[in-house]
Amino acid sequence: MQRPGGPTAALGPIRAAEPDLWIWMGDNVYADTLNMTALDSIYARQNRRPGHRALRESTRVIGTWDDHDYGANDAGRSYPKRDRSQAHVLDFMDVPEDHPRRERAGVYSAHTYGPPGKRVKVILLDTRYHRDPITRDPISGQHYFPNEEGTSWARRSGSG
């Protein structure tokens, strides 16, 4: 959605539609860095952009991350700054300091919206924090995704 220095023009029409919810699906910012001061600055710049600021003021915002906001292109569990990066993305999503997401490894989450009988459940996965390097199993040809804790959590979240 947002390349460095690029416009957030799409957010104006989105906000005008008065959505109940905005879901960041990753690449919320383009950081690709090991420098956490730079990452903080990039998120702060995104938060200052008028379109993004107006959307946050009028709409519930949730989301996950992908590689560019995680910190390094195609990075996974070997990214050395993943815990600090996680704190940055949770701050960006306005996750309260005492929320359980702050205590676990990864940014996966589940959210339920709507009145009884008309509810929708949004399950956001984390495809970065526990991801193995991009290699294929020589026998099955499959990639590892995600860790057992995340898989277990997704199964439990989807059943309720």
List keywords for this structure.
160 residues, alpha+beta, two-stranded parallel sheet, two-stranded antiparallel sheet, 6 helices, globular
Structural notes for this entry:
Its EC number is 3.1.3.1. Residues 141-160 are annotated as: Disordered. It is an enzyme of class 3 (hydrolase). The protein is α+β, with helices and mostly antiparallel strands. It has one domain. The protein is 34% helix and 11% strand. The chain contains six helices and four strands. It has helices spanning 11-16, 36-48, 50-58, 67-70, 82-92, 148-158; strands at residues 21-24, 60-63, 109-113, 120-124. The protein has a two-stranded parallel sheet. A two-stranded antiparallel ribbon has the order 3-4. Strand 3 and strand 4 (120-124) form a beta hairpin. Helix 2 (36-48) runs parallel beside helix 5. The protein is globular, with a radius of gyration of 17 Å. The chain starts with 10 loop residues before the first helix and ends with a helix. The model has no long low-confidence stretch (mean pLDDT 86).
Say what oligomer this is. Answer: single chain
Shape: globular
The secondary-structure element order is HEHHEHHEEH
Strand content: 5-15%
Unreliable parts:
none
Layout of secondary structure:
Layout: H1 11-16, E1 21-24, H2 36-48, H3 50-58, E2 60-63, H4 67-70, H5 82-92, E3 109-113, E4 120-124, H6 148-158
Parallel strand pairs: 1-2
Antiparallel strand pairs: 3-4
Helix pairs in contact: 2-5
Compact summary:
The protein has about 160 residues and is an alpha+beta fold. It is built from 6 helices and 4 strands; from the N terminus they run αβααβααββα. The longest helix has 13 residues, at about 35-50.
